[in-house]
Amino acid sequence: MSSSNIESGVRSGIQPQDELKRILTVEQLPAMPQSALTVLQIDNDLAKVNINDLVRPIEADPGLVAQVLKFLNSSYFGFQSTISNVKQGIALVGIRVVKNFVLWKAVFSLIPKSKGSGFDVGGLWQDSLRRAMFARFLLTEFKKGDAEMAFAGALLQDMAIPMLLKLRPTGYDDLIERYIKDTTGTRLSILEDERFGWNHAQAGGILGRTWKLPHLLTLIIEEHTEVEELAKSFDSNCEEAAVAISALLPSDSREDWTEAEIFVKYFKSMLPGKSDLLKNLLGKVDREFDQYASIIQIGKPKRKLMDYADKLG
């Protein structure tokens, strides 16, 4: 079914949200690996769980064991001695860090790798990792909420885009090309809503529920375009707000940071009197990006965040 069929379906009385669900469920979506599902269902508090319950599903997948150990022994953590087993690594870095890595590897394996109309999936992951690190550092800096949940939500916030490109390349591909070339700062979600009556954030919510991701994580993905509302409730919805503002960071696929002004506006409204720390946060992302990116095999963006510092006011 092409995008013209989608739009004709809306005209014939099918609601946009129902059509979106049909796009993402009638088609054969890949299944989340069982080892990842088991890991995601385990409590985040090491004091409340038997560590072997987390180790067991990871060790049942030899490929995943190798990836987790490579992750734990990377220069990002800088441990002086080699971590030889998963149990030891979890004790050192915590459940959340390992769970986030397993989640990332699982979702990465499910996302189509193809390019479409100037859209590079590798570039999407570059953007998403920078946004994830910003959301994590933001909550850590101000000692608010669950920084690791925000990291996961920001990393996966745009995971539906390549899936939509694969399932409906005709109309969606054209829209992505229009977004990349846009110089007015129009958000992708606005273009999607205007064209289809749904957007990639809502599609991400459907994927999250299909893949049985944690409820809060799915909610963060689904709401990440609603920055205006979330910025008003930063104290009570800090994970969602951190991810929503991270979504306004520059995309490496576009020539300029067209959303810089609105990004600064919402940062100031969320954290009044703290705008002097904004450059520090962006600089920290730049400094630590390369190390983390090498772990999960993501390339370097063309421009660093601090290359846009003149737009921060």
- Tell me what portion of residues adopts beta-strand conformation: under 5%
Radius of gyration, in Å, reads 19 Å
CATH topology (fold) name of the largest domain? Hypothetical protein af1432
In total, the number of domains comes to 2
Which ranges are low-confidence, i.e. pLDDT below 50, for 5 or more consecutive residues? 1-6
**Which structural class do the helices and strands define?**
mainly alpha
Question: Mean pLDDT, rounded to whole units?
Answer: 87
Q: State the helicity in percent bands.
A: 55-70%
How many helical stretches? 18
Order of helices and strands: HHHHHHHHHHHHHHHHHH
CATH first level of the largest domain: Mainly Alpha
Gap from first CA to last CA: 46 Å
CATH homology-level superfamily of the largest domain: Hypothetical protein af1432
Looking at the overall shape, the CATH architecture of the largest domain is: Orthogonal Bundle
Major sheet attributes: none
Protein model, in words:
The protein has 313 residues and is mainly alpha-helical. The chain has two domains: 31-110, no CATH class; 117-312, Hypothetical protein af1432. It contains 18 helices and no strands. It has helices at residues 3-11, 16-26, 34-40, 51-59, 62-72, 86-93, 95-110, 121-141, 147-156, 160-167, 169-181, 188-196, 200-210, 215-222, 227-231, 238-246, 260-270, 278-295. The termini are far apart.
